[in-house]
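[step 3/7] fold_predict: job queued, chain A
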Amino acid sequence: MKVVYTAHAEKKLKFSEIRKLKITKKKLESVIQNPIAIDRSEDPVLIAIGKLTEKLSLSVAYRKINKKIRIITFYPAERGRYERKILQRR
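[step 4/7] structure written:
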C-alpha cells in the first residue's frame, strides 16, 4: 500500500526532538504495519501504537483512503500510557 504524509507530518519529522528520538518515515510505517495496539475510537482516523524505546511508545495517526495510507501526525509518549486504555476497552 502506498504511504503519503500530510504537510504537518513532514514538517514534524524535521523537529530536532524528533530527530533525536530517531523517528523516521521507515519507523512510522513499521508501527502501522506491526502495531502493539490500534485505537479505532476516532474512526475513520486510526492510531497505531508501537514501541519506540524501552520507556517510550510511538503513536501514529493515519487514515486509509482507497489504496493509500495517509499519515496525519505522530507522537511519542510514555510506554503504556495509551496502550493500557485501548487494551482495557476490549
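[step 5/7] annotate
Residues 25-33 form the longest helix (9 residues).
The CA atoms of residues 39 and 47 lie 5 Å apart.
exit 0
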